[in-house]
Hints:
The structure holds 2 protein chains of 2 kinds. By secondary structure, chain A is an alpha+beta fold. Chain A has a domain at 106-268: Beta Barrel (Thrombin, subunit H), CATH 2.40.10.340. Chain A has helices spanning 3-20, 24-57, 62-99; strands spanning 108-118, 126-129, 142-144, 149-156, 161-165, 173-177, 183-188, 200-205, 216-219, 232-241, 246-252, 261-268. By secondary structure, chain B is mainly α. Chains A and B meet through helix 1 and helix 2 of A and helix 1, helix 3, strand 1, strand 2 and helix 4 of B.
Amino acid sequence: MNKWNIGLIAVVVGIALFLSTRPAAQVQDMQAGFLSLLSPFFRTGTAVQEQLGSVGAGLKTLDQLEKENVTLLEENRVLLTTNNLLREIEGENNQLRQALAYRERSVFKLLPARIIARDASTWWNTVTINRGFADGIETDQPVLTEIGLVGKTTTVGKNETKVLLLTDETCRVGARIEGTKEQGIVSGIRVQSQRSTGELHLNFLTKNAPVEPSQKVYSAGVANGVFPSGILIGTVVEFRPRALDGQAVLEPAVDLSKIEDVFVILGAK
Amino acid sequence: MKNTIGLAIFCVVLFVLLLVQSFIPPIRFLEGARLLLVPALFCYAALTLPYPAMLAAALVTGFLCDVAYVHVVGGQVEIAVGWSIIYFVILGSIASGFRPEMSRGRWWPVIPLSIVGTSCFLLLQFVMISVRREGFFFSPETAWRILVPGLLAGPFAMLVHFVVSFFNQLFWPRVTQRHSAAARSY
């Protein structure tokens, strides 16, 4: 090997070492830049996929479409009425909480977003959505659907954001089990089996916790935490007593492999 | 000039592959293993490009792989950006040893190199994650996710070789004929 090649190796390794010492914020900036570069291709790719997928699904008769339209209109009217009633109840609830000197329950602003890409990496569970800091998204904001919790935002680009899914081992959520006083921490597992829709573990429960299958698990809303309380995480499938504590195996409420549309909680209205 | 064009084409194809990979879902019946095409492409480039161009390819490949898949949670980077560059420099240096075979028209080294290169890339990622998360466990699913992408990378590398050979024949027929003659006489 000649001196010229050795010098080049030194330069390349030097660049690698320089990059490895960059702080997390700079790494996220680099990733956000790269996401912005890929974003137009992701959007086009997703649009093409949707077009291809909708070819079969779109073939409906006019009668079917008319029926569907009538049902949707009716559903919309019911939902609007329910929403108005709930708004009244919410106001009344806040007035009563004020009267009792409780903190007013905050209502969150939801930003709808669409998944434009799924992470191609083997060990991490993330997706990319089509909203970014231009829409008011910041790092560590909860992401959910109308059914339950999906995950939280990590790297935020201008018009795209990476979302860390609940099934990832590094996504941890304080949780409580419905009908009990049991609280623990929910996290995903490192290598999810593809036979199921994803598996979550609720750790640090009491060893003899009165936990039964099919009980629902909600976010606990830890002080200064990322996730607000009361969001459905999943359902208990199994309880395992361990040497020092108990562990519940959960099935996520949302099928994370199939979701397409999500909401990002931007903060209090 | 041909090497510069080769490196430029490599960069474009690499970018396209990173995009394409995002749209390929995991293979459910193979325990969720994914198709990982980038290391196989790099192996082919390392076997065909001269050493300095291979180093440039390693720099670009490593950087793009790290930036695309870097995992930042709670203000901490799980695997430092830059490790892939070093990995591809080592893999490329090993591959460069087989370059004389390649120039004689023997393209077989690209298959074992792609298989081993892809699986080792995933294995190293898994080991680094395990060290970082302070817990090491190895399940059958883990083995599948490391080995299957490697096994799929072999045929992909072969496909890359045939596509490149076809275009080589199209644009540099005299060089290709000289290589073929050298391979026959060897």
